Amino acid sequence: MAKPKTAITPTRDENYPEWYQQVVRRADLAETSPVRGCMVIKPWGCSLWENMQQGLDGMFKATGHRNAYFPLFIPKRFLEKEAEHVEGFAKECAVVTHHRLEAGPDGGLVPAGELEEPLVVRPTSETIIGDAFSRWIESYRDLPLLINQWANVVRWEMRTRLFLRTAEFLWQEGHTAHATADEAMAHTHKMLGVYQEFAERFMAMPVLTGSKTAGERFPGAVETLCIEAMMQDRKALQAGTSHFLGQNFAKAQDITYQSDQGQLEHCWTTSWGVSTRLIGAMIMCHGDDDGIICPPRLAPAHVVILPITGRSETPEAIHNYCRKLADDLRVQPYHGRHLEVEVDERDLRGGEKNWQWVRRGVPIRLEVGPRDMEADSVFMARRDRPAKDKVSVGRTEFLSSITQTLDEMQQGLFDRALAFREAHTAVIDSEEAFREWFTAPKGEPTPPHGGFALTHFCGDEGIEAKIADELGVTVRCVPFGDDEPGTCPFSGKPSPKRVVWAKAY
Amino acid sequence: MAKPKTAITPTRDENYPEWYQQVVRRADLAETSPVRGCMVIKPWGCSLWENMQQGLDGMFKATGHRNAYFPLFIPKRFLEKEAEHVEGFAKECAVVTHHRLEAGPDGGLVPAGELEEPLVVRPTSETIIGDAFSRWIESYRDLPLLINQWANVVRWEMRTRLFLRTAEFLWQEGHTAHATADEAMAHTHKMLGVYQEFAERFMAMPVLTGSKTAGERFPGAVETLCIEAMMQDRKALQAGTSHFLGQNFAKAQDITYQSDQGQLEHCWTTSWGVSTRLIGAMIMCHGDDDGIICPPRLAPAHVVILPITGRSETPEAIHNYCRKLADDLRVQPYHGRHLEVEVDERDLRGGEKNWQWVRRGVPIRLEVGPRDMEADSVFMARRDRPAKDKVSVGRTEFLSSITQTLDEMQQGLFDRALAFREAHTAVIDSEEAFREWFTAPKGEPTPPHGGFALTHFCGDEGIEAKIADELGVTVRCVPFGDDEPGTCPFSGKPSPKRVVWAKAY
């Protein structure tokens, strides 16, 4: 059988990392820029991010948070206040040292106006927001303080990949302060729950939830919780983290409150964030060899209408028919917004246009030619089915069933991703089986193979480091909930519960 | 008569600049941060900005623009490409020179990893976006290219004032490319029209529109158009600008397209922006001695409900009554969103709560005590009337008239601001009268006095500089439209039309 033609070359099987780069490029999501490590997010990618923002922002507000905005720059002395924190970020931060450019000896411009204290472009904002919290919080009446910020951050990454790892990225960072450890910990869990709900309901992406081992914790955190998703190369992607910071930052920055007993106490704080990395997760969770597949809840457009006027004697009638159809769709509510519709009237070949929307992952494509118009019907293709599967549907029937169809697609994407994860998750009880799971069969490319492995684990950091070194596999999370105690296959020591191992982005 | 008590000290008359600082602080809009010149935008201020963003973003999308996101950093060589542009921004930009911190000789951290080429934190993005345009545009079919970016920018200002002039601020910057000069110029005007409509309809702030004189143009622009509003100290505030860039940036950055004739041509570009400065404009256009007044179209909350449970035997019944009222309000549509309602159940004195909402400018405040509940009515105060003017309104009547009341308030704020501007605008024909207009009467504080002066003007830059130097007054704009030619009162030379002079922020 001849290899079927795909819109993306190479395919996922042929070369997954290169497939990813090509999908991002050909779906017009983003591109590299002349600034090392910084990306340009193109309109289609920006629109996906805006839809993610809107969904998340609604959930943050529904859980009592308010948005604020804090300075881009962090004085060096702030970063230095929390020892682990600065240790974690000092190695990769953009440092502002001057505040103007002036003509240099060779005529070009050189930095001038040296700052007394260097400023770091925020890699995260615990310290600058903590400083504000120390001023805003006076008594227990001011608690809990629940703040979120939408912002850009910079971490000077050497090896970058669009959306997954870039020097500058967009994100939200939640920062909260509480009167007690229990309340702060409960909030850390609550926000992880928000992320899980967002991943599963909006992104149609099933996630595991759990806590990180010590080595994978956020610098300065007491505990880091995470959501982890499986990509189609069976690697794990950390899609969001929620940190219980204990009193580490509160003590470093003097965030105190007067209790109802009149005592001065340190607050307990949390922070949590998701970023444009979620776009990378969405691409690798659902995309196929024809491009990305947008979950309907996040799609920049739900429906694209392609007027096929080629041999028609009345092209204007077809255009009008399509525009009217678009208007009838746009008034339909869909999960708190309305259906978004594109009518592609560009003067391009129909095939070229069609494939462009396939690659961009629009859930529903409609072709309308003279015969469709006469029959008052549309020729419909669903992005979750092969590109050539098209069916004729009566206009009225289409209009009355479209939101249900989209909901089915949303659920279908989730179900498919969940089935994939389950098919590539193994419960493993011996080191030999574990090594075999994560080693590619001879002659087969690597990845894909393996996936998630659930084993007992004694928690020894040396073992974890050795496995990471030898197999490139790490503990992605220690799942929540009860489990039977058992024996660690690596050390033979007792283990309280199973952990999830995987290769990871 | 005793001086009436005001929520803000000093009053506008006593000390306008200090009144402004106090209003910003006491309305909880923003505060200075430990980072020189950078502000913290607090939740109430952030919410105002989000509402502005939402209004503007809808208008940008309705005029065919799409959002994208470009790097925060601009390589030095990019900035240098357009001579006037770099001249305008080099003096005040944050320069990143290193990409990590490491332990220095005295144990503290010092910048390390020096960059081969310094990066400038974007003061504006013409050059970095122009670089993308030069890649994105190939033929006339790609034009016009209509892009907008929501972002933070940094201009190293030495003398800062919250919202009005800060080192970092939030803004949007539109960037478009066109095939012809006429089309680009028409687009420059169109976007100024969008700004005017936004200022007048959303902010209830009347603006003059016109073009800037050469000295006030954006660095690198051929023509700068602007909207100018009068503040209550009679000074002008430039609230938005729209630039026709000609082919200056296209030539500097090689932004070309192939015409339908097959010729390679340079594009014509525009850029336009508004920023968080609009919040400062809103404050100074409408605020009074009790705090800010939010135009209903931008208000973070339209209605605040204060349950008065002081002497009640059934506080829970009152709270429930208030919550039910809030729910009934929240389902009401209001200009594309729904009514936003706060129920303030905090355990604070009623007077303290009430004044807090007055200072924050919520359009409608409702008090509900036992007797109101019994009578099924609310005790209502409007923020555009004195704080003590409260009327009892039946619940049903209130619910059915609230959106109309808000619309009346919105119009009332506009009308009041327009009347103020008209009362303080003079048509002047002699230099003597001009100097008198802009000079405070003896013994009177300065400002307020004067306002806008419309005079003929020959356009001589030396005269403009001399007047700026002596009186602190500049040409704010050359209004659009036809006018009678006349004689310049400063030079005696012919003048094509009148211009608008004022002191300015």
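qc> Chain A has a mean pLDDT of 95.
qc> done
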